[in-house]
Amino acid sequence: MRVRLDRFEIQRLFRMTQIAPPVPLATKLSLELEQPAAPYEGDGDTDTLELAPLPVRLATLVSILLPFAGLIIAVVLLWGVAFNWVYLAMFLGGYLLTGLGITVGFHRYFTHKSFEAPRAVQATLGALGSMAVEGPLLTWAATHRLHHQHSDRDADPHSPHTHGEGFTGFVKGLVHSHFGWLFMKEPENLAKYAPDLARDPLVRFLDRTFVWWMLLGLVLPAVVGGLVTMSWAGVGLGFLWGGLARVFFVHHVTWSVNSVCHLWGSRPFRSHDHSRNNALFGILAFGEGWHNNHHAFPASARHGLRAWQFDLSYLVIRALGLVGLAWDIRVPTADRQKAKLRAARAE
What we know:
The protein is an all-alpha fold. 59% of the residues lie in helices and 0% in strands.
């Protein structure tokens, strides 16, 4: 699943900007730091969800089941004999690096432009995010912007709230929002949500080379495991723990922000959707679980807006800022936060 960006598509996007300069969606979202979002009223280009072609569905099924199978194999192999600190370190290290590649890179930098960074940092974050195996950068960013534009409405690609009433509707919505949406056909108008990114040569390179970064993220822990243990068993276990098992956990934690964080948790801020703060995924997803905070202030680099709301991604961004590798770090003012808190209490 890719945003098709051949030269004709790029030329079309440039012609669109020349005829009627659109405001990039990232800019539209960032304006919510200064003004409340308008209520959703629908538009004329809502896409109807339909099944993707069979090869796409099969590839998606493999991407979901293969990491799980790798985890089961790893557990069986480690039973009393095949587990040690080397594989634990590769699993946790890979989870941390690729998870931050998604949260700090794909999400907060590329999708929402919540801070600025030099090209080397952008490239590193983009490569690490690609190793998380959640799809090419352009598709990921455009889909997330589409989600914000239509959050918990019919055109939202992964809402749990648009699948009917009662227990059956709840289960359908939960499954769809967690991973079922990955089997759906890509919206035909998806490219319009990331014209700014499509014009960036680095983004296009990272998007075009996604498969190679994905493979590197799987091969590298296998090589490290083999070199540390000097054995073929180390190669296999490194691939399973640092590769497949790590991908499995990153996937399900990320997907839980789409599903769990639109179903369970608190809603302190006014937002025109069902986004919720969930403390468990605030920790596991490196701050992404403070989801109501994020939907209230999409362009904020900080999602954990309270001192007790642990936000590892923001701490990383602040650390980058301290050494000059990040700047223009955006956080909503105290007055803006209070205004949305009052609006939420009044509803």
